[in-house]
Amino acid sequence: MKVTNNIKLAIVLGLLIMISVTLELWETNTSSTGVNTELFVVDNIELVDRVVITNQTGTMDCRAFPGGFMINQRYPMDQGVLNILAAVFQQIRVQRPVSGPEQEEIVSMIRQTGSKVEVFQGENLLLSFWAGGDEAQQKSYFVTLQDEVYLVQLPGYSSYVSGLFQMPLSSWRSREVFQNSWRSLMSFSYQDFEQPTNDFQITYRDPFFAVSGVQQLDSNKVMNYLQDLISLKAS
Q: What is the DSSP string of 158-205?
């Protein structure tokens, strides 16, 4: 009886060893041939001070300045878009590589209709790839400079990620009409060409503002109006 039990235990032990070795070999092969899901991730987003996006419509050179990012050294960049861009560079993940005839088709398509993205720290190029895909099917592809194609996604989102890099310059620009607060306002004039009697002017006269044609001023209404004015955004 003891001999039989020992044989059974030896068989079970042998099976466990075989399973353990098989799993170890499988994990080794998987790790050695697996895809780097963070291939397009910027390790330290704080180092990025320039992003250049080039496509058929032209080039957007987004650079960091003391007051924020500027586009082509002319237009302030929208802070919301900048936050989304930073999130993409931190959270983008590779789903799978694409190969064969599909790879060749995607490379050809993206080189014609997609956008080239370059990320810099000073003069040091941190990351470069082409972005494009199929918006109708919500499929985003990033293509390396070596024409390697990867299907990418933002975990937890089903949005068309490549669409960010295909937006026109007008969508990247800040929509804020005024860059300063009401405290820096010295005067403001309003002209109604259809009803000239509605014209007025607000002028700062220490310690408060004066409104043309108004003797008894409601300070609350003036402050609310100025706050709405400074918060004005272009459509």
A: -S-GGGGGGS-HHHHB--BS-SS-GGG--EEEE--SS-GGG-EEEEEE
Helices assigned H by DSSP within 92-181: 100-113, 169-172
Helices (DSSP H) in 68-99: which residue ranges? Answer: 79-91
- What pTM, to 2 d.p., does this model score? 0.65
**Residue pLDDT, tens place only, 164-177:** 999 999 889 876 55
Spatial distance between the Cα atoms of 48 and 117, rounded to a whole number of angstroms: 13
- Exposure letters 84-103 (e unless 16+ CB within 10 A, then b): ebeebbeebbbeeebeeeeb
**Model pLDDT for residues 76-128, shown as the tens digit of each residue:** 999 899 999 999 999 999 999 999 999 999 999 999 999 999 999 999 999 99
Taking the C-alpha atoms of residue 37 and residue 143, their distance in angstroms, rounded to an integer, is: 14
Encoded amino acid at 193, one letter: F
Angstrom distance (rounded) from CA 37 to CA 96? 8
What is the number of alpha carbons within 13 Å of residue 125 lying toward its C-beta?
7
Structure tokens at 81: 């878009």
Stated as kind and residue range, the H or E segment containing 122 is: none
CB atoms closer than 10 angstroms to residue 9: 10
Q: Are 55 and 111 in contact (CB under 8 A)?
A: no
Question: Distance (Å, rounded) from C-alpha 222 to C-alpha 146?
Answer: 60
Measured CA to CA, the distance from residue 176 to residue 234 in angstroms comes to: 6
